[in-house]
Amino acid sequence: MADHYEVLGVARDATTDEIKKAYRRLARQLHPDVNPGADASERFKSVTHAYDVLSDAKQRQQYDRGGQGGGGFDNGQFGNFGDIFETFFGGGGGGSRGPRSRRERGQDALLRVELDLDEVIFGTHRDIEVDTAVVCGTCSGTCCQPGTAPVTCDICHGTGNIQRAVRSLLGNVMTSSPCGSCRGYGTIIATPCVTCQGQGRVRARRKVPIDIPAGVDTGLRLQMPGSGEAGPAGGPNGDLYLEMKVRHHDVFSRDGDDLLCTLDIPMTTAILGTTTTVAALDGDIEVQLRPGVQSGEILTIKDRGVTKLRGNGRGDLRIGVQVLTPTKLDHKERELIEAFAARHKVPAPSLSHFQQGLFAKLRDRFLG
Question: What are the boundaries of the CR-type zinc fingers (predicted)?
């Protein structure tokens, strides 16, 4: 078997680029479409096999140590077993798969958006800046320097594949593999865009306007089709996913579409009752407390909760009442309380069955 370096006409210490240039020069001379002679066909197969071995670092190292390369068999005797398997299991054969497209879909992106609880009630609008891939403004995604265009590969003539006949245990078979010169694209970017280095896209910050619907909750993801990264060579954008994070609020917590809070009232107000105004997330609310209201009672204000994400209307605002008992009394105040207790003949404290009241549940604040 001829020496691979001699077949390509390069020195044994030739670089990968030198080997590639030598292969392209010989392939142009010996390709069956250009030189149909039998001798040229055999030389083309030898040149291609030599390039397959020497262009692969692992195979070249094995070959330099005295191995055959290309799987350990002489291409002139048995061919390459990888090519045979490709031929019979969908990787090769007489047909051409056509050139690859440089245009690919861009990657999806995931961003976390933090919201305040009051923004969740009715929804909000945000303009967010993202660091992402955008179409190159110089070449508009063509990958070429302005005024130039991709040129057809002179090795595969635009097919993106190289076909060759090899002898195997099963007879002569035609194999097809991606062209090593154009990497299967069928064209070569002779003058790449200097801005994007021939990628058709660059990294940049861009502003994305988003409308966040009412009723979102922590962990919910919103999909924005086509707002992700731009694809290579002007390919379509991927999608942008927004993961919601609702910040903790010091007063209000959330139970589904309902809002929860606690109203602290003095003991005298609990006894006498009153009407008071409290500040909710979306405006003031008038709350009526009946005389004798007890700690743990729940006051429900209809339709003052969170707007429902799916459906119509809003949830409720539920207010848990907590009666504050005074801890410091002066002499006169104590006399008045004692007189009140004697007048009403308050029963002695007694045990009853333990109950997990609603008020205790309301005190568990929503952790966003």
Answer: 123-205
